[in-house]
Amino acid sequence: MLHAKIPEGLLQDKWSNYKAQAALISPANRRNYKIIVVGTGLAGASAAASLAELGFAVEVFTFHDSARRAHSVAAQGGVNAAKNYKNDGDSIWRMFYDTLKGGDFRAREANVYRLAECSEALINHAVAQGVPFAREYSGYLSNRSFGGVQVSRTFYARGQTGQQLLLGAYQALLKQQAGHQLQLHTRHEMLDVITVNGQAQGIVARNLDTGEMSTHPCDALILATGGYGKIYYLSTLAMNCNASAIWRAHRKGAFMACPSFTQFHPTSLPQLGNYQSKLTLMSESLRNDGRIWVPKLPNEQRLAKDIPEEERDYYLERRYPSFGNLAPRDIASRAAKERIDAGFGVGPMKNAVYLDFKDAMQRDGKKTIAQRYGNLFDMYQKITGINAYNEPMMIAPAAHFSMGGLWVDYNLMSNLPGLFVLGEANFADHGANRLGANSLLQACVDGYFISPITVMDYLAKQPIQKDKTQYLAAAEKAKQEVRVQIEQLLQIQGDTTAEEFHKELGNILYKKCGLSRNQRDMELAKEEILALQLRFKTKLLIPGKESEINFELEKAMRVNDYLEMAILIVEDALQREESCGAHFREEYQTQEGEAQRNDENFAYISAWEFKGNNVFQLHKEALQFNFVTLKNRSYK
Amino acid sequence: MKLDLHIWRQASFQAKGYFEHFALDDLDEHMSVPEMLDHLNTQIIKSGGQPIAFESDCREGICGQCGFVINGNVHSPVAGTTTCQTHLRSFTNAQTLYIEPFRAAAFPIKKDLMVDRSALDRIIQAGGYIGVHTGMAPEANTHLIAHNLAEKAFDAAACIGCGACVATCKNASAMLFTSAKINHLSLLPQGAPEEQARVTNMIQQMDEEGFGACSNTGACEVVCPQGISITNIADTNRTWFKKQISN
């Protein structure tokens, strides 16, 4: 049933072969095809601009007031590419292998290879768009290293790489709108996918300024709506990041793959109080020069600067000498949690570890460190009021990136024909753990280089004239269903806000299906989430009405979707009786506390089918490794 | 911590606005301003009222979505800081705060503290891009760009599109915003060929949107959360005049 459609041939030939054989549409005919893109982050904006440049009619939807606000904007550290500008032994193959291994061998070889293969073109394109990447004094592009690799392949624009890449894509998008090749709808939220016999043919959208509901037909639909890490409530994501678009597609039949694979970022700022709405990320690049430690004594009361060197435990350097502070994110986060749980945490809530630049400043000088990370130190001071030049930063793991997402084949098309899913919204390339600086890359590569070819190939094989009768009936039905849902939510008039429900849900997931998981806790989590779903249906309070700007209604619909999705996340984590990447099952670990993978039974992608009423059916796509040998992932 | 709040309420663009008073006495000094409003909104909703509409997404000072005027300070009383990065410890206990939306003719108020800043997108649309299609680009190191030039382009490119420069300007001019984008792109060799069309079209669009003229007071660079310099405006003026003369 699940067919990944991976092209034949050697790994390095697959994408070239695919491109050589992909079906095309004549330039004059492309305007007859309508493509809808939902989301204007890096994946959405780049796909929309590239498809419009090819001549397709493109319609774009974002719930933001401007396409530039999408959360890609917040990515700090950089974007990877196998340029080997450092002459340090990098290559497409090495980048492919690092990424596959970083993901603990739970991604497809062919997809990951293509990601590495297209990385070079992405850097070329971004530079041409005017992205001001860091340069050497000679004028050449500069690189730095990131977690989980031993080469320097990360391109960066200070601590604002995501912002600069997004502005490049956003500007390309607006250029197409100026040329009337593309129509952009801001402040419109997609609330359903319209399907006809299982094929995606349009969307239902709500105008967030007026509440007006509209339907929009298309020949191909692209969802590029980002990740769902915000389901944990406290996360590094923006307040409005949500799973609703992919969840509603899932309800319409699209399979959800590996939803329990959520990355916890090791260098977030710790929670300071219960009023808090989010956790702020500090770029992983800080780990290039910062050393992570906790006191050797539990319940240490002294200030960091008063703790002598011999009483500090640089636990990453101790446990993983060859990668040290640059161990991959899942490992660094878990190691921090291990120390915090053991009572060695620091900070007012004893929930953090130190990230110390003392040695780096002694070695390179304060000025150099300020040049490298100045904006991050400023940001840290703004948020915490602490000057990190004088004392170590305090950091903690936080929910961050969704490796899971809608299942897609090699074309980035879901099991619903015509529904393509790009960027963080799909599950495709990162396996069970994403390497730093690979998310901007994946979003861009999906949008600029893959989808224009695969979407055209799909459209070329579709008949141009369609009988619209079935579509019109399906559109009306979908719109009506969304209306009924909104009315039902508004009518509850209980006493608890959507945000309060969201906080409760996040709390359950953090504790029982977060950085570390076990069967007993997850069974409990399921019960608690089911109880929360029931309470939501009777106690939710939304003020105001549908036909106006109503942020509470928007939040309530998203939390409603999160409450359903949370059950699936737990189900997925329960069925995977192994530890891999970010998914750590306490029952499956080595004697040293490392993740214990089980390739014999779990080398597959879990793809879930929605059956209604908290019931999901599991399908398995077996992962075949024809070009690499599976190895135990060691960073020691 | 206690604060005495007077917050701008306005049901829609047409409706008449007013300040509504709220006295809060259960605040934490480490809350950010949007977190304070979240907290207040929960109270309002539970007592049957209409929550205050405001926008704030990333809460890291990078998406450009938030921004209010607090006691006359655009974004924040803390220099170079967005509203979302302003914490209550920046205020004194029991202080009175007047919180209003960004005000400019080109930024119509939508509801309470929400304004429509789509005019800024239309300025970008008029020429704030380099016309390269996917697939055209040469190898990335083909054009060498001196470190200082790359840094200068970055300084201009760092704009987050929040509109604080407009809100603080007595003429509600968008010159800092517009010139930052013009300079970012025109400084780089890749963006140089389109420089003249870019400057003409973006300035023309800025005028059409109803932003005022720049009279070089420098107020904009004081509030800019990214510290964008008004030298961008000088550079843009020079390019624009050169273009006019050559016509």
CATH architecture of the largest domain in chain B: Orthogonal Bundle
What fold name goes in the CATH topology slot of the domain at 265-399 in chain A?
Flavocytochrome C3, Chain A, domain 1
**Name of the CATH first level of the largest domain in chain B:** Mainly Alpha
Shape of chain B: elongated
Name given to the CATH architecture of the domain at 265-399 in chain A: Alpha-Beta Complex
User: Unreliable stretches of chain B, pLDDT < 50, 5 or more residues?
Assistant: none
Q: Which strand-content bin applies to the residues of chain B?
A: 5-15%
Number of helices of chain B: 8
Greatest interface (CB-CB under 8 A), with counts per chain: A-B, 78 and 76 residues
How big is the Rg of chain A? 24 Å
Mean pLDDT of chain B: 97
What's the SSE pattern of chain B?
EEHEEEEEHHHHHHH
Lay out the secondary structure:
The complex is a heterodimer of chains A (636) and B (247).
Chain A: H1 14-21, E1 34-38, H2 42-54, E2 57-61, E3 79-80, H3 92-102, H4 109-129, E4 154-155, H5 161-178, E5 182-185, E6 188-196, E7 199-207, E8 213-217, E9 220-223, H6 244-251, E10 256-257, E11 262-268, E12 291-295, E13 312-313, H7 315-319, H8 329-344, E14 353-356, H9 358-364, H10 366-384, E15 393-402, E16 405-406, E17 419-421, H11 439-460, H12 469-492, H13 498-512, H14 519-539, H15 551-575, H16 599-602, E18 604-612, E19 615-622
Parallel strand pairs in A: 1-2, 1-9, 2-5, 9-17
Antiparallel strand pairs in A: 3-4, 6-7, 7-8, 10-16, 10-18, 11-15, 12-13, 12-14, 14-15, 18-19
Helix pairs in contact in A: 2-5, 2-11, 3-4, 4-11, 9-10, 13-14, 13-15, 14-15
Chain B: E1 3-9, E2 18-24, H1 33-46, E3 68-70, E4 73-74, E5 95-101, E6 109-111, E7 114-115, H2 118-125, H3 147-157, H4 164-168, H5 175-187, H6 195-208, H7 219-223, H8 231-246
Parallel strand pairs in B: 1-5
Antiparallel strand pairs in B: 1-2, 3-4, 3-5, 6-7
Helix pairs in contact in B: 2-6, 3-5, 5-6, 5-8, 6-8
